[in-house]
């Protein structure tokens, strides 16, 4: 056991206690961030005259060496060290001797880990944002190709009114775009540097916190040192945003699973994104969509865990906060991975356009339009609603659509029906006539697509 403390102690830590307390098995994930933070810290210390230039250069060289040796496998991160911070410091001292002992001047592991976690979260936030951008590109492409692809729109999972596939996809574009806006917003709030907060009350060394913050790409230092070491709001916000991403992906997955079912056949998931059954040879299962739907629970779990961990912690740092890592790391990997896989599945998925059209035609999705037609011919809406209701019942008995009825048949329900009814309630007309902002009509869709495109060009 290589510990950073000991002077005050007369006994060795109990082995089980040591293992229980240690975090190296998971915080080694942010070695890069730990090194990045240490580099900025020594640069600042030297600039302030707290370390000499020689000491700074020796430390920087030592840190580079650690990075190189871990990457090449010469140096192994083992549980001999309590955490990644001890690992780096102990190795630095092994390498360069006394100068290494000065790295931690004016720093505490409390502000060090606060910094590492923030840097790591910031990097993951940017990576997730890039994955979401890719997904939006895929969705936009499907929108552009399918302005004229008619399908039923649903409420209560019952066919409601005809829409276009572009319109349906556009709804998801909005959702994932909002997810990106949320990330952008979180980034702005979190991008302040906690290093220099010390253990809780700053330090007596004349640190230039503005400079350290600048070196690390932050907008400035955090303001209050007690908050600096004990704030994990940014992580909670990020987990909440990831939970929302997963909720969106899960809804989308649910639809794809339904659309891919034998009964619907709206889509066919590519072989590369499907799996078979060990016993039923005919099976091609939408496992990826199901797994994405299932993994949503893990991310929600991580959000609940950190909220619960933080809720009873007095200021400032408490060891409870070490629990901010494992589940959050898992949530970050899970969410990024799910967005990436989902985008791939969507990109390679085939849409059965004829099946979608036939489904819209045979689900009375034009019933509202038929009622509106009668209204235009002078029938009050409530009467028109009743007439079309009876027409639907008549069709259901015969297994036909409204458009399949002859004009004489229609006239038995209302003399207001004319030859122009067929044009008025064709699927194409029903969609084309929906022209308000946000509707599936081609002009409204063209506008929506243009907005989506210009968003992606700029962001
Ligand atoms: N492994 C610790 C964590 O993740 C690092 C900070 C330790 N600080 C302390 N005072 N024991 O929170």
What features would you describe in this structure?
This protein has 459 residues and is mainly alpha-helical. The protein folds into 3 domains: 15-105, Fumarase/aspartase (N-terminal domain) (Fumarase C, Chain B, domain 1), CATH 1.10.275.10; 110-357, Fumarase/aspartase (Central domain) (Fumarase C, Chain A, domain 2, Up-down Bundle), CATH 1.20.200; 358-458, Orthogonal Bundle (Ribonucleotide Reductase Protein R1, domain 1), CATH 1.10.40. 61% of the residues lie in helices and 4% in strands. It has helices spanning 15-21, 24-27, 31-47, 53-72, 84-96, 109-145, 165-190, 209-215, 225-230, 233-259, 287-310, 326-347, 353-361, 367-376, 381-398, 407-411, 421-424, 427-432, 442-458, and strands spanning 150-155, 158-164, 267-268, 350-351. The chain has a two-stranded antiparallel sheet. A two-stranded antiparallel sheet has the order 3-4. The longest helix has 37 residues, at 109-145. The protein starts with 14 loop residues before the first helix and ends with a helix. The model has no long low-confidence stretch (mean pLDDT 96).
Strand count: 4
Please give the order of strands in the largest beta sheet. Answer: 1-2
End-to-end separation in angstroms reads 48 Å
Proportion of residues in extended strands? under 5%
Say what the CATH topology of the largest domain is.
Answer: Fumarase C, Chain A, domain 2
What is the architecture of the largest domain at the second tier of CATH? Up-down Bundle
Low-confidence stretches: none
What would the principal axes of the Cα set say about the shape? elongated
CATH C-level class of the largest domain: Mainly Alpha
Radius of gyration: 31 Å
